[in-house]
Specification:
This protein is of the alpha+beta class. It contains three helices and three strands, in the order βαββαα. It has a domain of 64 residues: Dodecin subunit-like.
C-alpha cells in the first residue's frame, strides 16, 4: 500500500491587518490545522512589494490532487535508479539534428 504524500500549503496575511484581526485569524487557522501539521510562521517580502506573514503547514493530499498525480506519476513502480538505467541505454550520437 503506498504511503500517502503530504503537501506543504501556505496561508498569507497582508501587512495591513489590525492586531485584533491578526489574533483572530491566527486562532482560527490554528484551530483548523490538520493533525501533524508542523506549522511555521515567517515574515516574507520586502519594502518594494510589501511584507506579509506566511504560515506554512503540511496536509494530506486531496482526492483531486491524488487523481492528478496518478495520471502523471510512475504507473509501473519503476524507481529512479531503474529509470536512470533505461536512459543510459538510449543511444546518443553527437552531430546535427535530423531535420527529416
Amino acid at each position: 500500500m503506498p504511503v500517502p504524500r503530504r503537501v506543504k500549503d501556505f496561508i498569507d496575511i497582508s501587512e495591513y491587518t489590525s492586531l485584533d484581526d491578526l489574533i483572530r485569524y491566527l486562532k482560527t487557522i490554528r484551530d483548523n490545522l490538520p493533525p501533524e501539521h508542523q506549522a511555521e510562521l515567517k515574515i516574507r517580502g520586502d519594502d518594494v512589494f510589501g511584507r506579509r506573514l506566511t504560515i506554512s503547514y503540511f496536509r494530506e493530499q486531496t482526492a483531486e490532487e491524488l487523481e492528478i498525480e496518478s495520471k502523471y506519476g510512475d504507473t509501473d513502480g519503476a524507481s529512479i535508479e531503474e529509470l536512470r538505467r533505461k536512459l543510459d541505454d538510449v543511444p546518443f550520437r553527437l552531430g546535427k539534428a535530423n531535420n527529416g
